[in-house]
Write a structure and sequence with these properties.
The protein is an alpha/beta fold and 381 residues long. The chain has nine helices and 21 strands. Strand 6 and strand 7 form a beta hairpin. Helix 5 crosses helix 9. The N terminus and C terminus are likely disordered.
Amino acid sequence: NIYTKAATMDLEQVDVVIVGAGLSGINAAHRVQTQVSNYSYIILESRESIGGTWGFFKYPGLRSDSDVFTFGFPFKPWTKDKSIADGASILEYIKDTAHEFGIDSHIRYKHKLNKASFSSSSACWTLNVTDSSASDPTEKHIKAKFVFFCTGYYSYDEALPSIIPGIDQFKGTVVHPQFWPDGLDYENKKIVIIGSGATAITLLPNLSEKASQVTMLQRSPSYIVGLPAVDKATMLIRSILPAHTAHSVIRFKNALIGYLFVTYCKYFPERAKKMIIRETEKLLPENIPVSPHFTPKYYPWQQRLCLCPDGDFFAALRSGKGNIATGKIRNFTENSVQLENGDEIEADIVVTATGLKIKLLGGVQLEVDGKIGIFKLKISS
């Protein structure tokens, strides 16, 4: 049995409760059932499907911004060729893993954890859960020895509020990537993406395939690095070694390369900056200068770098359908964005890729011995 019934019908007792059925939740479940196999566990998932981020976001071109060999499960080899994978492939990978290891049978869909109360005397958690799997939601209580939060760090309910001057005057369509509408028609439309993070850099080349013009409007630039979608060294290792061994070797190789690069950027920041800007300049069309669009004021890895597989972001710029603008927004008209430097960008659609709202532990209320939990973090240098 996944869990045992307690004395009352509305109270369940289980050793471990995992909150969230995304990639980290599936990983946690595998650890529980392999390393403490005598423990019972369940996974509470507030949504109706598995996958977390990869089942939630729907915007065009959704993909990972780190390689899947280090991002994925060490116990389940990534078998596809692309290291920077698309969202649909990652979701399939999560579902296949959960099914293969019998983890999916432990998932309680549409079960939202509201409150977690810990008792020091019994060394036990009591969880208040809303079960919306039936037509009429019901309240449940679950007792557990351990609670494993795998809820991610952002709110699924609302995006990060951002102040964009005059956007209410815009008469076109305004979209946030977190809530991309089904069936949005952007063919032959002019699109402005506000933002310069991983989402914006993913959207530009993908929207450019159908739109007439896509402009990424950034207040300040980011470092953007192009990497091969399919790594030749990875393919060679796979051709020589068995699947699990190859996966471990590739995982170690990619982690080591990442570590060495970050270390280089840390100790030789000026050289790293010049190297990235020099390589960026080679990929740009003649009409787009490297400064001010690709010359951040900070050094590489003082903020996270953005990756684009096969340099697709730069390819979109070279095609003429993609463009980039750097500056602050002054105002909107009914069909354009006006910048403080006097430039004006026409738009039918504005995409506000301005970030995610942090929401730790899924917003669950924590309580310890009847008191609302206040946690102090000790950070050592």
